[in-house]
């Protein structure tokens, strides 16, 4: 049998000597879906020349069909080959380059060094970062590095993952990362306690004027009357943002004898109840609290949420702690509220601009206690964060879906391993369906029908949908598609993907019985691929762990989806398999599978022929000239 020349579609971008080689092949191939090829920036304008390949005028004339099919395949192959080629070179020979742009704990650095070339370059200007990034596969930052669109642009598609060694990802342009198919991961748990402890430290220090008294004493004074503080016990603390840090602050404040209320539009009430905290509205929180501690992320909706209007509603003499992000407070408004006495004191770890200007009125205010963004800065937290982010980045570079992905759906490992063969099937079905589209038809919508015996809640199809999108788009454009950017790219290209689940009475042991891909409102260059409903329709299933094509239009077939495929519609008569088989055999094209499906005996039949090699144009022409062959198409998988 001739050996297959098919290139691997899923190849882990980087392999290490030990860890990746021990991965089961299905796992590594599935997980590397994140960046199975070297990502290239997504062209937001659909490339006309490439699209016109598929949309070029066609007719039912068979020779044109052959020409179109060949062209489409060539276009897809050229595009894929260039990317896969680069990848293979990387995976075999080159270690990934990981740029660490801010101080990271040693344990994390060691882990990174065992996997790639680590470049620790701190305090880079934007310009220098943009210069360096073009040669980096991963970037690890803390809060001090602005990972802007410009950085993703400068990366020219090489950057695969940005690791944020901490929680807040407001310094990373997530939209740009997604558009460029770059995964963003964070380290959301390791600094929670450190940030909560710092919040409590600021609360107590502010209430007892510790910083001011310290500075006063060091300047030679002894001012006992000036620094009389306020007590915490019995006072009401409003925790704004009842997430990981907020709830730890609440726990500790209760230990200090405070009454704790919280505002968080998304926090479950039972989580608050478990800590003995009542969830209240924003207005109720700010108007009843003696102390307000901020723990929400900086997002467009929380930006300057504390402004003149808000300060007008607070209890006079309120004290504010901010260990979240400076941007949630309108700092000028806070200065006004401090000056008017509406706000008695503030304790701030974070600022809109970091470091703030030296003459910042807020920093210089005598009733304000400040620290230079130290919330996460304990030895313990920094070691924990460094390990957490190093593991996530290394995993992502090996093609795994990180559990802490910020711009991609999180799919649990057990779901991933169960879906592995269906993921392969999904991409192949998308790839096949798009190759049946005739020139001139713009693809606007695709429908995916999953037949499954599973409860709909027990079937996560996001990965499958992304793979079908990849299968449909990649053969006809320059776009690189992965789980990060699949939905975005489909939207940009005006492709609407809808999903339907149909309950079937089969074993729920297998997640999916069949997957059907339908393309509507398009002409087909292979009329038999069109269902009675008028859509291009193909269906497949996983058999013995392998993807199989089981239906084309209204014809049932059964062919393993390996190598390439020839679909022939013919008059159902004896000798057809032999005739076509001979033509292929003469050209040394090895047939791997053959399946015939027919609607009416001795009338019409579809022959699906799996071939290991790509037949040349002459061979395809000869198949087309067999008198009983009415139409045929060559499809590359
Ligand atoms: N100063 C420092 O060094 C540190 C600062 N942080 C900051 O603290 C923030 C919180 O961290 P975690 O608790 O780990 O995150 P988290 O995601 O566990 O909690 C954030 C909470 O804020 C809530 N939230 C979102 N929008 C809100 C709104 N408009 N009003 C009220 N609540 C809202 C969310 O529902 C969530 O429960 C981070 O985003 C980060 O900016 C975190 C660690 C260290
Ligand atoms: O984790 C966070 O959100 C933080 O703000 C910590 O920031 P840092 O890593 O100390 O610059």
UniProtKB/TrEMBL annotation:
Pfam entry (one): PGDH_inter
GO annotation, biological process: L-serine biosynthetic process
Subcellular location: Plastid, Chloroplast
PROSITE patterns noted in UniProt: ACT, D_2_HYDROXYACID_DH_1, D_2_HYDROXYACID_DH_2, D_2_HYDROXYACID_DH_3
Residue numbers spanned by region Disordered: 1-27
Catalytic activity entry: (2R)-3-phosphoglycerate + NAD(+) = 3-phosphooxypyruvate + NADH + H(+)
Domain ACT: 565-637
An annotated GO cellular component: chloroplast stroma
Protein family according to the UniProt entry: Belongs to the D-isomer specific 2-hydroxyacid dehydrogenase family.
Keywords, comma-separated and alphabetical: Amino-acid biosynthesis, Chloroplast, NAD, Oxidoreductase, Plastid, Serine biosynthesis, Transit peptide
Leader sequence residues: none
Top-rank taxon, per record: Eukaryota
One term of GO molecular function: NAD binding
Upper taxonomic lineage: Eukaryota, Viridiplantae, Streptophyta, Embryophyta, Tracheophyta
Name the UniProt record assigns to this protein: D-3-phosphoglycerate dehydrogenase
Pathway: Amino-acid biosynthesis; L-serine biosynthesis; L-serine from 3-phospho-D-glycerate: step 1/3
Enzyme Commission number(s) of this protein: 1.1.1.95
